[in-house]
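User: Second chain of the day. Same drill as before.
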Amino acid sequence: MRTSTLARAGAVLTASALALTLGAGSASASEDTTTKTATIDTRPGAAATKVDWNTAGLARQGKSDVSANFVANPDLKTFAFATKNQVLYGPAGNALFGTIAVAPGNPGPPGGLGYNMTTNLKYYGSTKTAVPLYAGFATKEPLGGTPIPDTYGPGLYSFGPTSIADPGGGSPFVDPTLSNTVRVRNATMADNLYTYYTGSSKKKVSVKAKVYRPSANIFAGGISSVRLQYKSGSTWKTMKTIKLNKYGNASYSWSQSSKRSYRILIPTTLSIQGGSDLDENGKGIYM
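Assistant: Same format as last time:
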């Protein structure tokens, strides 16, 4: 009798163990996926972080002073801001890059690294405030340009006239040269998760996208949609326009048996700086 009871108990335990084993196997199969992450960040890159906007003139570049070359009427020879990727990303110190050169100045280009300069910021042609101006280049070191506040938001900016002063003292000279007009947009960021399922044609992407909001000084939702694109030859083609919720989030699933390179693109608008999640080598997510 006892033996029969033990046998029955053993059978029950064996069945339970078998059920647990089958259940675990089924769960593992459902999780048989591969994920890859990609990001979008349209804020200025590493080169921009090297600029010390709080220190004027040659001190930030470690070069000698040029006050001996200062004359009564220095000439702002080049006053040109880059026309692409100028963005707002914080309450202050938003770096707008341009090629700024003054003559006479330090030996060699760009000229004017030793001068203290302040220029008028104009928003849609109306003078708003004065901001510091730094000599340099738009795309290489030493970087030139100006840090601006986010007070006025995205839109059309221009600069000038400019006060140019000898760092050693003396009265400044006001140069009447005006810069070009440049459109400034709000920066964007996104974290994208790509998923594909082993042994299946199913694929999925989850997007969390944010845009800088000057009124609140934060990155938050506000991007209406992004584009899921695949590469065909040398061309990126839109497969789906994905609508985002008010927080900037969305997921989209599709089936595609063959592998392709994919990317998520935030479109550029008059107020939003778009970008894609391609890597530093220009490659998308291959799955």
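Helices lie at 2-30, 46-49.

User: Great, on to the next one.
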